Prior knowledge:
Layout (H helix, E strand, L loop, with lengths): L7 E4 L5 H12 L3 E5 L13 H12 L4 E4 L6 H15 L4 E4 L14 H29 L3 E6 L2 H4 L6 H21 L4 E9 L14 H4 L8 H8 L10 E5 L2 E4 L19 H12 L1
Bound molecules: nicotinamide-adenine-dinucleotide.
Amino acid sequence: MGLLDGKVAVVTGSGGGIGREHALALAKNGAKVLVNDLGGTRDGAGGGSAMADQVVKEIQEAGGEAAPNYDNVATMEGGQGILQSALDAFGKVDILVNNAGILRDKTFSKMTEDLWDSVVAVHLKGAFCVTQPIFNHMKERGEGGSIISTSSTSGLEGNFGQTNYGAAKAGIAGLTRCLAIEGLKAGIRANAIAPVALTRMTEDLAMFQKDEMKDRMDPGLVSPLIVYLASDLSKEITKKTFFIGAGTISEMRMTRTKGVTKTDNGGLWEPDEIAGKIDEILA
Ligand code: NAD
C-alpha cells in the first residue's frame, strides 16, 4: 500500500529540477500524477513538450501512472487547461503542488517592467491561475485536498538582486496563509515550502559549487516533505511555511513582537516617543 494510493496530484513545472523529483516521489507513493511543464529555459523563454513527456515516461517505466500537460501556469486559460487535463486523465484532483518558476535577476535600480512582470506572472499570478480552478474543484467534490506552493527564502528573508522574484515568492506565502483560512471548512489544506537545492536555477551560485555541498543539495531531498504534506500523515497541518534544504526541515514564521501599547493620549504616539521605545518595540 502506498501512502497516496487512489490520490491524484498535479505538479506544475515538473518537467525538471525540484518539480520532477516531486512528481517521481508522489507517483512512487501511489499517486497518479499530472506532469505540467511549459518546457522553456531557466528565464522562461521558449517552450515544448519534451520535458513533461520525459518525466511521464520515467514514471510509467517505474510502474506508475502519469499524464502530461504543457500549459502556461501564468494564464487563466493555462490554469483551466491544467485542471481539465487532470480531469480527462484521472477524473479528479486531490493534491496540487505549485512549483513552476523562472528567474530573471537584476538589481532593483536596473529592474525593468518586463523583468518584473514576467517573474511575478509565472510565480504569483501563476499560483492564482492554477490554484483557483483546482481549489473550486476540490470544494465541489467535498473531499478536501492539499495545496502546497513553493515560496523561497529570497522572499521570506531577502536576497540581493531578486526584488521581483522575492516579491512574488513572499506573495505566494501570503496567498497560502489566506487560502488556508478559506479552505478550512472544506478540509482543503494550504502550506508552502521554501526549498534549497541544486538545479539549473541555482547552478551558477558559488555556494552550490563546493563539492561538500553538492551531495546535500540534491533536489530529491526536498520531495519527501511534499509527500508528507500531500498525505494524511499531515492532516492537521495547514497555513504553515517550511524551509527545507541540505537535510534540514524547519518552520518559517511571520512573527509579531509583544510590542508596546500607548494608553494615554487616545493611543496616539509622537514620533520622538516611538524613538524612545524602539528597542522595546523590536524586542
Ligand atoms: P527549474 O528551472 O529546474 O524548474 C522550474 C520548472 O518550471 C522548469 O521545468 C520550467 O520549465 C517550469 N516552468 C517555468 N515557467 C513555467 C510556466 N509558465 N508554466 C509551466 N511551467 C513552467 O528550477 P527549480 O530550482 O527546480 O525550481 C522549482 C521551484 O522551486 C521554483 O518555483 C523555484 O522558484 C523554487 N525554488 C527553488 C530553489 C532552489 O534552490 N533551486 C530555491 C527556492 C525556491
